[in-house]
Write a structure and sequence with these properties.
This protein is α/β, with parallel strands linked by helices. The chain is 30% helix and 23% strand. The protein has an 8-stranded parallel beta sheet. The longest helix is centred in the first third of the chain and has 26 residues, at 3-28. The termini are far apart. Residues 18-27 have low confidence and may be disordered. It binds beta-D-galactopyranose.
């Protein structure tokens, strides 16, 4: 080979390598254009665990509409663990035909016809947490199957993963979902074990930051489950990692499941909205009380969560049992939650200087739960907050 043809060969090889690098890069970053604001929907796990079937899921889809939840933003209907029982001889994942006799495609069609989106659950290991078949080794086949069924959202768990690496395992499913060519929100659920906020921005649309939420104010389970305030404390400091398309997920809502008071549920919901958390209702929405429905559908509070700018709020002040959380909104105003974790009523104050405003700036305060304008204030706003309660306001210069 002479020098010229050698050079030509060299150039051709560089070209091929460059194209290969480019197309690998295409799969490397998650850019599915989804979840530009925190996803909202309903998930079966918190209330029904393995007790899922197609009739129940259809009823939940119907109830999302009759309760006004769909119109308030709840869009994804997600079946968590236990819908799957086996693999067939070709390796295809097999849904439980007793519980889902019409199959997943028919269920997805039903949900889509209602203007909703359909979600499923799987696991990065060999088995799901309830010992159903996981996706390890079947990622591309499963993603193809989900796309064919019309899946719009995948929650992907972390049981039976032995020595697997989180980032590598979740990246395989990300690539498989991209290859499926259907836009599918990718929800990572490895319980914060490998600090996914440090790496998952390019892999998923949301990632769990903690163990499982429990339907209690401050309980702690030996296996890692925990109540509202413990989960809340673990979100402090993660705000820099969230933004449009990639969210910290402090786990699904327990609002309406019966383990907390209405006041406590209002606090749980308010703080999730300040955190720009995904809002996945986890209760039986067919028979909700008026108070619970009012919490889940308060449009002004939801608007804080769904703000276009996508900034996660943070704790700006704390003294003993009382604290102030604030979230900057796209129009420059602030949403503020005054939270009383103590046993007695307490007066809580937010100072303008704690939320990045000059002390002498006049601003309008609106109470989002009372739906009342409280007038113009300068420098600070104080309110009496009941035990385990919250006062949530917007402060707008
Ligand atoms: C857990 C997960 C829960 C639920 C459950 C199902 O690992 O954190 O949200 O999905 O598995 O088995």
């Amino acid at each position: 080979m002479n020098r010229t043809s050698c050079l030509r060969w060299f150039r051709a090889c560089c070209c091929v390598a460059f194209i290969a690098w480019l197309s690998a890069g295409e799969l490397r970053a998650l850019d599915n254009g989804l979840a530009k604001i925190p996803p909202m929907g309903w998930n079966s796990w918190n209330k029904f665990a393995c007790n899922v079937n197609e009739d129940l899921i259809k009823k939940m889809a119907d109830a999302l509409i009759s309760t006004g939840m769909r119109d308030a933003g709840y869009k994804y209907v997600v079946i968590d663990d236990c819908w799957q029982v086996d693999r067939d001889i070709q390796g295809n994942i097999v849904p439980d035909s007793k519980r889902f006799p019409s199959g997943m495609k028919a269920l997805a069609d039903y949900i889509h016809a209602k203007g909703l989106k359909f979600g499923l659950y799987s696991d990065a290991g060999t088995l799901t947490c309830q010992k159903r078949p996981g996706s390890r080794g079947y990622e591309f086949q499963d993603a193809r199957q989900y796309a064919a069924w019309g899946v719009d959202y995948l929650k992907y768990d972390w049981c039976s993963t032995s020595t697997q690496n989180q980032q590598a395992s979740y990246s395989i499913m990300r690539d498989a979902l991209v290859k499926s060519e259907r836009p599918i929100v990718f929800s990572l659920c490895e319980w914060g074990s490998s600090k996914p906020w440090l790496w998952a921005r390019d892999v998923g649309n949301l990632w769990r930051t903690t163990g499982d939420i429990q339907d209690c104010w401050d309980c702690k389970r030996e296996w890692g489950g925990m109540g509202f305030v413990h989960i809340l404390d673990l979100q402090d400091g993660l705000e820099a990692y969230a933004g449009p398309g990639h969210w910290n997920d402090p786990d699904m809502l327990e609002v309406g499941n019966g383990g907390m008071t209405t006041t406590e549920y209002r606090s749980h919901f308010s703080l999730w909205c300040i955190l720009a958390a995904p809002l996945m209702a986890g209760n039986d929405i067919r028979g909700m009380s008026r108070e619970i429905a009012e919490i889940l559908t308060n449009k002004e509070v939801i608007a804080v969560d769904q703000d276009q700018q996508g900034l996660q709020g943070r704790r700006v002040w704390r003294e003993r049992d009382v604290e102030v959380w604030a979230k900057q909104l796209a129009d420059g105003s602030r949403a503020v939650a005054l939270l009383n974790r103590g046993a007695d009523e307490s007066e809580i104050t937010v100072k303008w200087t704690d939320i990045g405003y000059p002390e002498n700036l006049p601003a309008f305060v609106r109470d989002l739960w009372a739906r009342k304008n409280l007038g113009k204030r300068t420098g600070l706003f104080s309110a009496k907050v009941v035990s385990h309660g919250v006062v949530m306001v917007t402060i707008k210069p």
